[in-house]
Amino acid sequence: MTFFEDIEPISTGVSTGAMFGYIVVGLIYWVITIIAFWRTFTKAGYPGWLAIIPIVNLFVLVKIAGYSAWLGILWFIPIANIVLAILVAFRNGRAFGHGGAFSFFLLFLLNPIGYFITGFSNDTYTKPVSA
Asked: What angle do CA 20, 32, 128 make, to 5 degrees?
């Protein structure tokens, strides 16, 4: 009897069907986010295809908010990224003519919905003053 015969296989508890469902939902979320960012980027004067590139699209959001793209490095610092995401959401909301509640709930918490609204509505982009 060898050592490996006594070891039971490890089960993750997630079935293949559930895993497939998670992947499908994630892909749908990703596509909706890309479409929303694409329209918002073009409305703000940036190339829409930048929405497809995962990290670059965060730097473009920082630029749309009126901040320097160098500030986007804060996306990689654990607590600072939450603060930056809130600041960018509020500045982008103001740049598209929306208030604080819209910015917090739809651009920060539910960003695909919020950016869908800013991209496909009649909102006009007014570049914020650089900070």
From this structure: 145
The backbone region for 84, taken as left when phi is positive above 0, alpha when psi lies in -120 to 50, beta otherwise, is alpha
pLDDT tens-digit series, residues 44-75: 999 999 999 999 999 999 999 999 999 999 99
Helix and strand numbers, DSSP H then E, in the chain: 5, 0
Contact yes or no for 111/96 (Cβ under 8 A): no
For 4, the token pair is: 């490996």
Distance, in Å, from the CA atom of 26 to the CA atom of 15, rounded to the nearest integer, reads 17
Please give the Cα distance from 38 to 117 (Å, whole number): 12
